Amino acid sequence: MRDELLTIGRFARLCRLSVKQLRHYDETGLLAPVRVDAVTGYRFYAPEQARDALTIALLRDMDLPLAVIARALSAEPESRAEILRAEGERLAERISRDQLRLQLLERLAEGGLPGYEVTTGREPERRLAVVRAVCAPTEIGERVGECVGRLLAGLGGTGVAWEPPLWGLYPLDLEARTEIAVGAQLGEGAESPGPECGAPPGLECEVLPGGLVAETVHVGPYAQLPLAYHALFATVHERGLRPRAPAREAYLGGPAQAPQDELRTRLIIGVEESTA
């Protein structure tokens, strides 16, 4: 039997892997040798294990986690395909995020930190009909689009008066699971504030208190809003103010009304004098 097996060194060369990698795969249970010498501890592999070893090397080169590779190797062909497709979707999402980061870096490299005029003033109380969603920070763009569709569907045909623009409401700190909301300001003809605040059936109501705010306007794609938030929060802290949730975005015309580079978004953060 020993003559039919390959030493770890020969097997590593056959599979274009290192001995260190094979030992690690053995220790993690991903690819165990068919025999380990009880005296010397030498590992021996069967030639038919080469396919799995080469598959592991290929998937690792694509940065798939070892746990995912282990699941794929042990799965039936149909389930394996589902596992790999799911990883492909995650890879596509990561590429998309990296492309957005690249665009931000290129903009910063060309012109440095863009200048934003940050002003303070007073904002009136607003009654909004809203829809909410809970998502990861990387899913916010997609979820906002879904919320806009649900909101407009809920408002349509009800006769409830509302005033543009649409509003996005976000926490100050984006956690692993973040609650967001998209809303429309209820018009003067809406019912008086109450449990539902005049919101149509199926929609919730949120009252944004009036008071002191800091604000700025971003011109450009939504993906570059972090630049505006950088300027806004930096100014808030430099002026000794304390921000209050939620962060508000007023979409002054959406993608249907203007090209990406001309989108205008008003960013507003409620503030109060710091007591520290």
Query: Strand order of the main beta sheet, please?
Result: 4-9-11-10-6-7-5-8
From the alpha-carbon coordinates, what is the Rg to the nearest angstrom? Answer: 28 Å
Number of strands: 11
Uncertain residue segments: none
- The assigned structural class equals alpha+beta
The residue fraction in helices comes out at 25-40%
Largest beta-sheet details: 8 strands, antiparallel
Mean pLDDT figure: 86
Note the quaternary state here.
Answer: single chain
How much strand?
A: 25-35%
* Number of alpha- plus pi-helical segments: 7
* Morphology: elongated
N-end to C-end Cα span = 76 Å
Order of helices and strands: EHHEEHHHEEHEEEEHEE
Describe the structure.
With 276 residues, this protein is of the alpha+beta class. Helix content is 37%, strand content 27%. It is built from seven helices and eleven strands. It has helices at residues 8-15, 19-27, 50-61, 66-74, 77-111, 140-155, 225-238, and strands spanning 6-7, 35-36, 43-45, 119-123, 126-135, 162-170, 178-186, 204-208, 211-219, 241-251, 264-273. The strands form two sheets. It has an eight-stranded antiparallel sheet, with helices on one face. Strand 6 (162-170) and strand 7 form a beta hairpin. Helix 4 runs antiparallel to helix 5 (77-111). The longest helix is centred in the middle third of the chain and has 35 residues, at 77-111. The model has no long low-confidence stretch (mean pLDDT 86).
Précis, in short:
The chain has seven helices and eleven strands.
